[in-house]
Structures are given as C-alpha cells and as structure tokens.
Design a protein that fits this description.
By secondary structure, the protein is mainly beta. The chain is about 5% helix and about 35% strand. It contains 1 helix and 8 strands; from the N terminus they run αββββββββ. The strands form 2 sheets. The protein has a 5-stranded antiparallel sheet. The protein has a 3-stranded antiparallel sheet with strand order 2-1-3. The chain is globular and about 55 Å long. It binds zinc ion.
Length: about 140
C-alpha cells in the first residue's frame, strides 16, 4: 500500500472587488470596506453598502480583534487537501467593528475554543499571491 500524496489546498481567487482585501492581508493588515455615507463596515466585499445602498465604499484598516461568535471542530477533512489538518476549528468571528467572517482559530487546542473568546487576526502565507486571515486567542 502506498501513501496518497498530499493535495494542494484550494485558494481564493481575488476579483476586482475583493483584491484590496487580499492585498492588505499580504501586508499583514485586515482591511474592510466602510460606507462613506452611513459609516457601516461591510464584509464580504461588494459594490454597494447593504445598509443604505451607497456605492461610496472605502477600504479601511480595522483592529483585527474580535470574538468567536460560533464554531465547529472539523474532525474529518472537508476535502482531501485538509486531511493532515484535522482536527481544526472553523469559526465565525465577530470583529470589534461589527462584521462577521468565517475563518479558522489556530494557536490553541480545538477543545480550548469557546464562544465569546477574544481573538486577534494572524496572517498565514498560503502562496506567493495569497495570505489567509486566521485568528488566535488574545493573550
Ligand atoms: Zn451605507
């Protein structure tokens, strides 16, 4: 029997609208769109503010801090490329600025993750072009 070789992980493909997010991540910054009209932070990236409909959105660096809103522990890989990562945490992070995003919590055992836990962004280079935004416990 032979070991199956690891597969490369699927990576995001930046678009015209999402490219500033990925370029900021590469620079170790978490950047979100913010509506210049009603000041709402917007995530995921899009052409119009979901609160007021304005297309006047500006990319703004945010703190990278937030809390775990919800999470699950993946004990079986969702695809072969993730076989060597199990168990891992898939979480919804509520940023201090309001928006929620889906990411991974790293830097602690999956059993230590709790809803409401304070986390901060960390940046993981996945390729020359893509840096992923993940979160780790604060402190
Ligand atoms: Zn708005």
């Amino acid at each position: 029997m032979s070991e199956r070789p690891p597969r490369p992980k699927p990576l995001p493909t930046p678009t015209a609208i999402t490219r500033p997010f990925w370029e900021a991540a590469k620079d170790r910054r978490l950047s979100l769109q913010r509506c210049e009209h009603c000041q709402t932070y917007v995530f995921y990236p899009r052409p119009f503010c979901p609160a007021c409909g304005s297309s006047d959105l500006a990319w703004t660096d945010v703190s990278g801090r937030g809390t775990v809103y919800s999470y699950t522990v993946a004990r079986r890989p969702t695809a072969r490329a993730f076989e060597s990562d199990v168990p891992y945490v898939i979480a919804i992070i509520e940023l201090d600025e309001g928006p929620r995003l889906i990411s991974n919590v790293i830097g602690c055992a999956p059993e230590e993750v709790r809803c409401g836990m304070a986390v901060e962004a960390v940046f993981e280079d996945a390729s020359d072009a893509i840096t992923l935004v993940k979160f780790r416990p604060v402190g």
